[in-house]
Structure prediction request, 270 residues.
Amino acid sequence: MATEKQLPMSERRRFLLQALQGIGLATLGALTWSAYIDEASAASLVLRPPGALSEEDFLSHCIRCGLCVEACPYDTLRLARAGDNVPVGTPYFIAREIPCYMCKDIPCVPPCPTGALEESLVMKMAKDGHKVFDIGMAKMGIAVIDSDQCVAFWGVQCDACYRACPLINEAIVIDHSRNDRTGKHALLVPRVIGDVCTGCGMCEKACVTEKASIFVLPLEVAKGKAGSNYIKGWDEKDEKRLETQTGGGETTVTPTSSQKPVDYLNDEEF
Prediction:
């Protein structure tokens, strides 16, 4: 009789234990999934190595091997860990801490075994007909200036970001204007040339303000998009965007806009 009573009790204990284990696994899975969602959504602000594909394609190609991180001579790249708000195991860098130092041979790209870092995105044809690396083609992001906090816009002479830029006077230029507050001095303020900036972050590292007033954001976040409704009529390359238009309306053509810019400007009625 004692054996018959113990059997049901043992089964009940086993059932409760299995139920608790199931609840624990479900809770752990929910927490893990929640963390993944949070980190995946934060990836839109992550700076990737040179030659990285678009973020969606990059995440689908990157196998988290860390070879690019090992190849970086400046310890710029790091592998994301849990809690970094970056998809775990993927390479990224924080410009304010260690920027990309624009290595001419771009050693982090060739070791990538999957094409998540694509060599063709940072290579050009040399005069001898061979392809060579060109770090100037890298598009890790674009530097953005907070003019409210940048002391140069206050009238303080500061060109730290301009001097730190490896593409000096190309990616960052200095604009001169009258200081209306004093009426006696000039404002020398930095301006980023988006088509040239590589997003290396050396300007952000050099910024003298407590929190950097110039900072690098990924292209998808920092750059606007005019859309196919607006084109530069004087730029033949820009007009080619109309050939690939898939939607978004039609370009408005008026008697004036149908003229060539030169003819329009030389028109007596202008």
Q: What stands out?
A: Residues 9 and 80 are 48 Å apart (CA to CA). The beta strands are 78-79, 91-92, 123-125, 131-133, 142-145, 172-178, 186-192, 214-217. The longest strand covers residues 172-178.
